[in-house]
Amino acid sequence: EAQVTQNPRYLITVTGKKLTVTCSQNMNHEYMSWYRQDPGLGLRQIYYSMNVEVTDKGDVPEGYKVSRKEKRNFPLILESPSPNQTSLYFCASSYGTGGYEQYFGPGTRLTVT
Amino acid sequence: DAKTTQPNSMESNEEEPVHLPCNHSTISGTDYIHWYRQLPSQGPEYVIHGLTSNVNNRMASLAIAEDRKSSTLILHRATLRDAAVYYCILRDVPRDDKIIFGKGTRLHILP
């Protein structure tokens, strides 16, 4: 089954404790993105990757890092999480840009205390 | 980065057609218009996309204005399961993949 998976689905952590949210897709997609969703603010893009070893900032990259060492995986790294990063995070992938649809993961709900 | 504007919320009766508008006055010639929807407690899912011509699929129709500065997502016969937040976004080819979702339109379906 074609899918985007994220782990963990739920995470409660404390300020400053490094964490990684994994994202994996099995569709051989070139393009991957991370979004955060907060009440009243909609979906905002954090980082995107157009190919292996190619990443770029989205709208709200501050406080986040990403890596794309292999095509299928695109982990989101919070090196020193803060309470304002409490949010619902979605990973997405697509074969290309322009006329290609994005497939979204189920989401990761992160709480930083 | 091109942006879109949508009404915050809309309401429709069950089994009636729904027309969801989207304005994108700064659209570029290579921007595709995409629609996604997000059901409660789920990730966004693709609905439809187009470039210049109107498009139909099993879920919906997309009507694109001749000047491409606006578009309308049409749900031909709304059901309670269509209650969701609908997002209209633009996606360019292939300079970068910056995508701005905005807040979308929350669609309420009345039984």
Could you provide a short overview of the structure?
By secondary structure, chain A is mostly beta strands. Helix content of chain A is 0%, strand content 50%.
Low-confidence stretches of chain A: none
Overall mean confidence score, pLDDT of chain A:
95
How are the strands ordered across the major sheet of chain B?
1-9-8-3-4
Largest sheet of chain B: 5 strands, mixed
Quaternary structure annotation = heterodimer
Helix content of chain A: under 10%
Report the biggest beta sheet of chain A as strand number plus sense, adding barrel if it closes: 7 strands, mixed
Structural class by helix and strand composition of chain A: mainly beta
Number of strands of chain A: 11
- Tally of separate helices of chain A: 0
Give Rg of chain A in angstroms: 13 Å
Outline of chain B: globular
**Portion in beta strands of chain A:** over 45%
Given the structure, what is the number of helices of chain B? 0
Average pLDDT figure of chain B: 93
Beta strand % of chain B: over 45%
How far from one another are the termini of chain B? 39 Å
Query: What is the rounded distance between the termini of chain A?
Result: 36 Å
Chain pair with largest interface: A-B, 28 and 25 residues
Task: Walk me through the structure.
Chain A contains no helices and 11 strands. Chain A has strands at 4-7, 10-13, 19-25, 31-38, 42-51, 54-57, 65-66, 76-78, 87-94, 103-104, 108-112. Chain A starts with a strand and ends with a strand. The model of chain A has no long low-confidence stretch (mean pLDDT 95). In chain B, 0% of the residues lie in helices and 45% in strands. Chain B has strands spanning 9-13, 18-23, 32-38, 45-50, 55-56, 61-64, 70-75, 84-91, 105-110. Chain B is globular and about 45 Å long. Chain B has no helices and 9 strands. In chain B, the strands form 2 sheets. Chain B has a 5-stranded mixed β-sheet, with no helix packed on it. Chain B is an all-beta fold and 111 residues long. Chains A and B meet through strand 4, strand 5 and strand 10 of A and strand 3 and strand 4 of B.
